Every structure is written in structure tokens, then in C-alpha cells.
Amino acid sequence: MLKKVAALLLASASMGAWLGCGTTSNRYLYAAIPASNQIVIYREDPNAGVLTQLAGSPVTAGQAVQSLVLHPSNKFLYAANSGSNNISLYAIGSDGSIAEITPRTNAGTAPTLLVMDSAGTYLYAANSGSFDISVFSIDQSSGALTPITQATGGTTAPIGITPINMKLSSSGNLYVTGSGLQGFIEEFPVTAGVLGEPVAGSPFLTGNAPYGLAIDAAGTFLYTGNNVDSTISEFAINADGSLTELAGSPIGESFVGPVNLLIDNSGKYLYVANQSSSNIAAYSIGTDGTLTLLTSSPFGSAGRPLTMTSDPSGKYLFVGNQSTPVIQSFSVDSSTGNLTSISSYSVPGTPTSIVIRP
Questions:
Q1: What are the pLDDT digits (tens) for 87-97?
Q2: For the chain, which terminus, N or C, has the lower number of CB atoms within 10 Å?
């Protein structure tokens, strides 16, 4: 009996030590490479932020695949094929592999942006060639897409601009950035996937060319990274979804060419990919939504960063670079916001969209 108890205690201790080593399950990273019509797939070590390319990767995708989005069930991956005006649906295997389910679903002309609501009920595709938004309902068991008739009677909602970024707030409002002589944000209320008339006050003015767009998890603040004038616009989101620009906004950057924004999982830091400066700037977010540049910022990238995402734990940040086609991984210090480069991984071309499956 004593031997059995000792063995049981030893097994329990070993189990505790094994669990204490950290997460042992794999995560999977998917990146769209439009120049080569491919999706690259990596296994992420959740304890180190290190990537290992999957066998069979890269996978042939649709023409000029531009944007990716994951279904919250983690069973399906959607890809916008801007060169063939349609959307691909992929089933995701337990090993991270993907298999396309055909036929593809038609969208408008040149779909370049995808967003999905948190419940995985609706998929929105912004079409840069036809200046409109396609909306689809999602079958929860098969992932199949069904176009939703819009208020105009067609299956797309005209917005009259070339969309350059798009986000959904937690309250369900859709924000779309565009740019002419002046940058701006159009905002639409959405009911069961149908876009309503723009809210009062829309469009809201930003700096020039607001390619970066981020909304905090609470739906309280919205930020744009304005590429041409190298500024960041700061807005409070009102109860009706309309925007009020914060005092002192836009703030001037010390860096050039912001193209992508990311708020970390804690909601304490905003990261800015500055393409022309080849760096990542980090700002702390005040309780009033104002931004303060970290004294340790910026952090060097491998070359002209274009897109960013963080893994589900918030411990690692992944950046797709343009001049040197690599995906670069960083560790994130949650107490300071500082980034530390881990490694870079070569890809067949510039990554335009990166998503990570838990």
C-alpha cells in the first residue's frame, strides 16, 4: 500500500511539473500572400512564439488572396480573393491543415477586406473595385455563406468610396475608412446583416489616408493611423456609435507612414506599424483614450511592416513585412508594453493578412 501511495504521489508531482511548464497544445498561424496566390501555414509554439511551417504549406489559394478571417468555432477559415471577385471557405483540420470547400462564393469587385461579428453569424466583405459591401449569413454547421439582401434590394450595400480599412465595434456598428483629399470614416448601423443609412455626423474626418484602424474591446475608443501625414486620430465612440474626436487629435508621429494599428489583449497598449520607418511604435492608452508614446519605443521590424496580429494569449505579436517578405515574431511584456524580437520567417511574398487559430 505504501508503495502504491508513493507511486501515486510521484505521478501527481510529475503531472504538476508537466502542467507547470506552460501550454502544450499548438496554435496555427495563417497568412495571405496575394503575389503568389497562396496561404502559408505555421504551427506556433504557445510557450515561445516560435513558428514551424506545416507540411504542405504554402497552400494554393484564390487569385490575389488578400484578407483572412477565422470563424469563432475555429472550424472554418475564409479568404477574400481580390483577383477573382469571390470568397473561399476552408475547413480546418485538427492538425491545422486547410481544405477548400467549393464552389467559391461570389462577392463584389475586388474584395480586399473581411470582418466577422463575434458570434460568427455574419461575414462582411469590402469590395474596393465596386465601392460596396457584401454581407453573408454563415451556416454554423457547414460554414457555407448565403448573401443577405440589402436595403437597396441587391446583395451589396453601396458606400460610394474605395474602402481602405473596416472594423465592427462590439455594439455592431460598421466603420469603414476612405480617403480623397481628406481622410474620413463612414459609419453604418447594422441590423441582421443589413446596413442602414450612415449615422448622423458620418463621415467623420481623420488625417490623410487612414489605412490603420483599431477599436478597443469595450467599443469605447477608435483610432486611425493616417499614412500620408503620419498622424494618429483619436475618437471617443458615443452611445449611438457616432464619433467625437478627442482634444489634441490627431497626434503627430515621430515616425513615417503608419499603415496598421493593433490594440493588445489587455487594452493598455496601441501598436503602430510604420511602414516607411520600418518600425513598430507603442503607445499606452489612457483611461480617457489619449495616447502616450512609450519611452522605449519604437521597435525595429525586419523591413516595412504592413500587417500585425497577436496570438490568443497576448504574449506574442506577429508582423508581416513588405520589403523583406518575412513574418516576424515578437514577445510582448504585458507590464511595460515592450516588444522583443524572437525570429523572422521567410514567406513567398508580402503578407497582407495574418490570423491565428487557438
A1: 999 999 999 99
A2: N
